[in-house]
Amino acid sequence: MNIVATRNLGRLKEKLELQLTIACTNADNIIDLGANVGSVTKSMLKIGKPVFAFEPDPVPFEELNKIIDSNLKTYLAAAWTSDGYMELFRHHDWEKLNLIHHQV
Fold first, then answer.
1. How far is it, in rounded angstroms, from Cα 82 to Cα 56?
2. 58: which strand partners?
3. Which of 3, 36, 53, 60 is the most exposed place for a label (fewest CB within 10 A)?
4. Alpha carbon distance 57, 37 (integer Å)
């Protein structure tokens, strides 16, 4: 398993933001499925279109909701092909990985 946790993500982030901008330029709305704490969501908001961010885990969802932007609508939910409920599974090192993510 590869874990990306580095302070040198600047170049990768710039590329991602450019790709998002190009892909979403003609979109009316942007949907972020699995938004987590909102790292990519923030980049999408820079485009200036409405962003609908879905995150099923209440812990990162709480962080996601700290993003204040009139174009952002968040949902504590997952996307699937039918209505229903599933058990949420976290990686066995979830707490450790979550801590690393927030320190970056």
1. 15
2. none
3. 3
4. 10
Nearest residue to 35 via CA among 60, 66, 3? 60
Q: Give CA–CA dist 29/71, Å, rounded.
A: 10
**pLDDT tens digits along 3-61:** 334 445 567 778 878 888 888 888 899 999 989 899 889 988 988 999 999 999 898 89
Q: Whole-angstrom Cα distance, residue 49 to residue 73?
A: 11
Taking Cα atoms as reference points, which of 48, 55, 38, 42 lies closest to residue 71?
Answer: 48
Rounded to whole angstroms, how far apart are CA atoms 79 and 102? 25
Residue with tokens 């229903």: 84
**Amino acid (one-letter) located at 99:** L
